């Protein structure tokens, strides 16, 4: 029987995380041995030899104190900076990353590709390409954990969290929920299928897709009557959404916010949370009217509304950060 001590290394992060772990293990092992050796040595060397023995009074040596303060400080600062640098690179997806939406619920993982393919408890990805997951939950806190990729991130209701990775080795890897989320938590598991790029393209084109996420978002946008207010030509009562994604939006009260996925999601579900400067808080909430998967489609639709190159900005689509769009 094979009893692996470590999961396979199958992502760009895996070697870094493992090297840090080796360092932690080495430091722990060294001090465990050193401390226990010292305990036994001192216990024997300085044992009480007679009933009336009084130990000699000793002053602590300053040099010794400095040594045992500075060395552990240095060792722990290495842990800190090393760990922080991995944490930072795990938190910053590259701009060209492939986007996938994840919705966790009791007790399954629902995944949605940009092209429209949907999966449950299974995710197909190409190797050699950064993949960014934008994740949320419909109910309680879950945690998306792929040991072979050395990534784990909480999936929290009411907000988006993201992780990214690049799979380095084709294969089938375990996906776990790593946060106790109720009776069937242990069944909230699945697989990541890392495929050669060509195989992935074949898989992607072979699946029955009901339109891309942006197309489905466009349909929802009509169904939910968003288009009555958010008119593309700026004649509606609400901010124009064309070219919104990625911009800095000025808010009532003088603050600004970057229009990312989290902001767009919040504006759909809690429109009164951030009011765009120059507009009235008239938008109703869509909480309960649209699923998290629907919200993700709307977000992708709004992201797809890029201004046509060279076209003059219509009234309400403000080119400069002077006024705004939501
Ligand atoms: Cu979901 Cu544990």
What does this entry show, briefly?
It is built from 6 helices and 12 strands. With 326 residues, the protein is an alpha+beta fold.
Task: Describe the fold and architecture.
There is one protein chain. With 326 residues, this protein is an alpha+beta fold. The chain has 6 helices and 12 strands. The strands form 3 sheets. It has a 5-stranded mixed β-sheet, covered by helices on one side. Strand 2 and strand 3 form a beta hairpin. Helix 1 (14-45) runs antiparallel to helix 2, helix 4 crosses helix 6 and helix 5 packs across helix 6. The longest helix is centred in the first third of the chain and has 32 residues, at 14-45. The protein is elongated, with a radius of gyration of 27 Å. The model is unreliable at 311-326 (pLDDT under 50). The chain binds dinuclear copper ion. Dinuclear copper ion (CUA) binds at residues 104, 107, 142, 177, 179-181, 185, 188. Dinuclear copper ion binds at residues 104, 107, 142, 177, 179-181, 185, 188.
Q: Using DSSP, what is the number of strands?
A: 12
Choose one word for the global shape: elongated
**Associated small molecules:** dinuclear copper ion
Low-confidence stretches: 311-326
- Give, in spatial order, the strands making up the sheet with the most strands: 3-2-1-5-8
Mean pLDDT over the full residue set: 85
The number of distinct helices, counting runs of at least 4 residues, comes to 6
Largest sheet: 5 strands, mixed
Instruction: Give the N-terminus to C-terminus distance in angstroms.
Output: 58 Å
**Strand fraction:** 15-25%
- Structural class comes to alpha+beta
Order of helices and strands: HHEEEEEEEEEEHHEEHH
* Rg from Cα: 27 Å
Share of residues in helices: 25-40%
